[in-house]
Amino acid sequence: MSQAQLEKKVTDYLRNSQALEDYWKTASYCRAVAAEMERMGSTRNSQTCYAELFEALGNDPFVIAECLAGPALSERLLRNFYAHDQDFMAI
Fold first, then answer.
1. pLDDT tens for residues 41-90?
2. Measured distance CA(51)–CA(30) in Å, rounded
């Protein structure tokens, strides 16, 4: 992955996280990221894949949350909120 692609991914994640907090007041986002990490680690079909990714990230919960679980969760939540939010549908 190029430096530009990596920077775009990080920028997108930070923007998504900020939107979740600003527009939808997701104060429990940290708990949701922890739950997402649990879900990722317990999904039977992808346990091997996630185990390899977790190992590559040093099995560090903070790094896993910031690099893997947080971006996946924020993207999914935003898609869901945008799809069901009438204020954004009118734009």
1. 777 777 778 888 888 889 888 888 888 888 888 888 888 887 777 665 44
2. 21
Full-model pTM: 0.63
Residue pointed to by tokens 């739950």? 35
Burial of 69 (0-12, 13-18, 19+ CB in 10 A): buried
Q: Where are the domains of the chain?
A: 28-72
Q: How many CA atoms lie within 13 A of 69 on its CB side?
A: 24
Which position has the token pair 């679980």? 69
Q: Residues 6 or more apart from 21 whose CB is under 8 A from it?
A: 27, 29
Strand residue runs (E) in 8-74: none
